[in-house]
Write a structure and sequence with these properties.
Blueprint (H helix, E strand, L loop, with lengths): L3 H7 L4 H22 L3 E8 L7 H24 L2 E6 L7 H13 L5 E9 L1 H11 L5 H5 L12 E4 L18 E4 L9 H13 L13
Parallel strand pairs: 1-3, 2-3, 4-5
Helix pairs in contact: 1-2, 2-3, 3-4
The chain binds 3-methylbut-3-enyl trihydrogen diphosphate and magnesium ion (MG).
The site of 3-methylbut-3-enyl trihydrogen diphosphate has 12 residues, from helix 1 and helix 2.
């Protein structure tokens, strides 16, 4: 969900206002996903590297998260959204961890899964998974990742003009289709979403096989 800061700067607003607009964009994109029949949406909300930002921004983001969790519970349950967090949750405050756990429990029956990556880094996730891994191959390893039980992403969208993966879903994105757009996350609207889906639908996904030769 990149570009919140630049969105705010363009409007001469504090960065946190950009993050608030980013949270609104997330609500909208969830609706687009559900209308399009997408069952899993994973968003990169806070990376292991984002702790290096100013105390003001980090605490603002944590407060925003906490109020998002608090304010959205009813709406998520009513809309059948299952909330799940990936990342190093022990980095988060005890209070936030408890709020996350409670929301995960309250929304467990949902049929659309919203995965929020918090204090998340792909390399960090892989190291933690390796410590739990007892052998058995890729499928078994995947069960040791934070994303256990969640299918690999088909489409990975990066907003705001950066052409990097930035430590997001390193293992899981092995065969994902990438879509890059200059649009800043808070401006990501239905038109942009449709553009991304239509680009995806034109891709030929071979997963390493040759066309027509799948075994
Ligand atoms: C992404 O927006 C949101 C978070 C990392 C929390 P940025 O804060 O990275 O926005 P830019 O890149 O400064 O525009
Ligand atoms: Mg950024």
């Amino acid at each position: 969900m990149d570009g919140n800061g630049r969105w705010a700067k363009k409007r001469l607003l504090p960065r946190l206002a950009g993050h608030r607009a980013g949270a609104d964009a997330l609500d909208r994109v969830m609706h687009y996903c559900r209308d399009a029949g997408v069952e899993y949406l994973t968003v990169y909300a806070f990376s292991t590297e984002n702790w290096k930002r100013s105390t003001e921004e980090v605490s603002g983001l944590m407060r925003l998260l906490s109020s998002y969790i608090h304010d959205k519970e009813k709406e998520l349950v009513a809309n059948g959204v299952r909330f799940r967090v990936i990342g190093r949750r022990s980095d988060l405050s005890g209070k936030l961890q408890a709020e996350i756990h409670a929301l995960e429990e309250a929304t467990a029956a949902g049929t659309f899964t919203l995965v929020v990556a918090l204090s998340y880094g792909g390399r960090d996730e892989i190291i933690r998974a390796a410590a739990r891994y007892k052998g058995g191959g890729e499928e078994e390893f995947a069960k040791c990742l934070d994303t256990a039980g969640i299918p690999d992403p088909d489409l990975l969208i990066r907003t705001s003009g950066e052409l990097r993966i930035s430590n997001f879903l390193l293992w899981q994105a092995a065969y994902a289709e990438f879509y890059f757009t200059d649009v800043l996350w808070p401006d990501f609207d239905r038109e942009e979403f449709d553009k991304a889906l239509s680009a995806y639908s034109k891709r030929e996904r071979r997963m390493g096989a040759r066309p027509g030769e799948g075994k």
